[in-house]
Amino acid sequence: MIQTKNLTKRYGSLLAVDRLDLFVPKGSIFGFIGPNGAGKTTTIKMLAGLIEPDTGTILIGDTDIRQNPEKAKQQIGFIPDRPYLYEKLTGLEFLKFTADLYGVEESGFRKKAENILDKFSLIDWKNELIEAYSHGMKQRLIMSAAILHDPKIIIVDEPMIGLDPAGIKMVKHLFRELADSGKTFFISTHTLSIAQDLCDKIGIIQKGKLIATGTLEDLKTQAHASSGDLEAVFLKLTREESFQQSVPDAGGAIP
Amino acid sequence: MNDILTLMTPRLLSFKNKKDGNFTRLLVLGIIGVIFWGGLFAVSLRLLSYFQSIEELGNILAWKLLSMVLVIYFSLLVFSSILTALSKLFLSKDLMLVHAMPVSSYKIFCARWIESAVDSSWTIIIFTLPVLISYGIIFKSGPFFYVLIIMVLLLLSIIASIISAMVVMVTVIIIPPGRIKSIFVFLGLLLFLLLYLAFRVIRPERLVDPEAFENFLSYLKILETPSAPYLPSTWAFDVIQASLTDVSHTLFLNLSLLAACACAMIFISLIIADAIYMKGVSKSQTARKTLRKPKVTKNPRILSFLPMHVQAYVIKEIKTFFRDQTQWSQIFLILALIVIYIYNFKVLPLERAPIKTVYLQNILAFVNIGLASFVLTAVTGRFAYPAVSQEGEAFWIVSSSPIRLKTFLWIKYFIYFVPLLVLTLVLIIATNILLQVSPFMMWLSIISILFIVPSIVALGIGLGAAYPDFNAENAAQAITSFGGLIFMMLAAVYITVVIVLEAGPVYRIFISGIYDQSISTARWVWIIGSFGLAALISIFTVIFSMKYGEKNLTKTSRRMK
């Protein structure tokens, strides 16, 4: 499970994340959506322990990431949006590096790594230098590395960038399978159809504030929309919020 | 022309909008630059004045020096332009964006070439000026001479950069750009080393000692230069010489040759660019698949005493280091440096020295501690200082891993500490054996080095972590940054302090040994105090540098977006 309380982060005068309270239960997939610059990546990086919040707490399982970052990170598999890797290692060598870093047993490594590479259609490329990989292949390699140490929590920033349709289908299937086996997912994305298809719950962030959260049905209720897909709900909610923020005394009146 | 200017606007605007160049940074860089410029100017003036004081030979030596300066200037420019042109024309990150625009490829080439020419030549021009200005002063030239040398340097820069751009364009058609850079760097270093070795073997110190030659004629013969009439640097030499000696027709002929050559080269390069530049760009975009098939195996047994995460970093560091072809040439350079360094000690004419040889040998051995430490600083600057920046944009792997940044830095530290210690010990022990120093001096050198190496490596890793550049296209260039300069300066200060602290006690012990004198208790206290202080400073340097690096790297990683 992932829990944040009163999470706040500022960049100078810009309030990137504003008192964010979230709860993602074990075995679920939580989608985090919002317009550009809403605070998604900042939130993701705080959850992954890449940047520290100014205030607030983050619980990864039962570990406070600020109190014990190493123990918390041991439980996380992080997949960033841009696949920067060590270009002079081969795919298999990179997995070995990750395995050693996260303390994966050496005895079962080879079999496990090859299984994962096979799952991500990278087995034929395992001994090629990463510099020869395409963008999508690098993204798949990062995903392979992220699940290699069997993390309880997987944090993903824009999971489908660079993947082909077959890759997207495979990743969606894999994420669902892992969530059903008890892994917790926190996914930030701009691709609303993926959030709609894949996520159990969705949170919408705008200007650093969580403006709505729940299942798609919950969001529809909050948006007073009886029908329509996530895109319509998202646009309605974010537009309303922008309006309310630009006219502070509008009293919630919606045009 | 408008298109070319538009293509250059991002660069100009980026320069204008650059906000990270704070005042202190610019001031420090400016002061260092001015000191270096002033030093070059003073040395050139002193040298030329000395030449003028030698009757008959003065002018010959001055012209010889001028021709050497211009040949070196031109060669340096060609070489540095090749590397810059390769990056600008074929390896830049924004290349695809630019080529997707509706602009002819020769215009893109032209804009990139201008950037490349400016980037590769401005520092060389600035630091060649003091030498040429000294000529103006010594030969009492008028203001026209100073305008002329700027024109000559600019024309030479244009010619060198356009030749390089053409060579690069043609070569890319044959060899993939990723490999060309390594090849050129390697060839350049090889050339440099061959020249240096040749220079050392000739022993130029003999040139200022005509008596060492059989007769005056053989001395003059050595000074004769084979002139290469088709080399632009020869035309440049003729222009400057003619201006200094008031031979106007030679001046204008050679100046016209330089200008015409530059114009013709630009014209030819544009035709070539129109024909093949796009082909090269297209070729450079094809994915490079490795020909080797490295197999992942179990971690080597030799590392089994280390924790798993440490093994992971050690193996990663070694593999990525040796698979990066640009590092090969550097390793080759280091090996050659060791050979040259040791060779220099071998050819020292100690037996002809006016002071007692044992005394001189041991003085040299002591000075050698400082010299070897400066070599160590240069090598640390090249390899250990960029070690953190080398992680590049993959630094997120380190930040998101369950390893503390402190551990990460200490792992980096030991990866570089071991080979650098071996390198410095080899330098010290080999040269001390050649110098046939006393056992006391041998042990003193070894113990000093055992304190100096950990400190210099800590300064390198610590400051490299404090001033990382994860976005650099070439992390090895990190040493030329502000942090790199701070590292160099602090290392120099540290080495000087240690050597100064040791010098007095070493002298005292040594003299007492030679003249069989006893050392008083008060002197022993002073000796132990000095050595102790040097050791304390070393330990403090290690701890402080690593802590400073960790603190700043933590801040940087938190700021990263």
Task: Please provide a brief summary of the model.
By secondary structure, chain A is α/β, with parallel strands linked by helices. Chain A contains nine helices and ten strands.
Describe the structure.
The complex is a heterodimer of chains A (255) and B (561). Chain A folds into two domains: 1-75 and 156-255, 3-Layer(aba) Sandwich (Rossmann fold); 85-151, no CATH class. The relative contact order of chain A is 0.16. In chain A, 38% of the residues lie in helices and 24% in strands. Chain A has helices spanning 40-47, 69-74, 91-101, 109-119, 135-148, 165-180, 192-198, 216-222, 230-246; strands at 2-11, 14-24, 29-33, 55-60, 63-64, 76-79, 153-157, 184-188, 201-206, 209-214. By secondary structure, chain B is an all-alpha fold. Chain B folds into two domains: 2-12 and 23-284, no CATH class; 305-559, no CATH class. In chain B, helix 15 packs antiparallel against helix 16 (439-466). At the A-B interface, helix 2 and helix 3 of A face helix 11, helix 14 and helix 18 of B.
Q: Tell me what the CATH architecture of the largest domain in chain A is.
A: 3-Layer(aba) Sandwich
Spatial arrangement of strands, main beta sheet of chain A: 6-7-8-3-9-10
Overall radius of gyration of chain A: 19 Å
Poorly predicted parts of chain A: 248-255
Helix content of chain A: 25-40%
Say what the CATH topology of the largest domain in chain A is: Rossmann fold
Q: What oligomeric state do these chains adopt? A: heterodimer
How many domains make up the coordinates of chain A?
Answer: 2
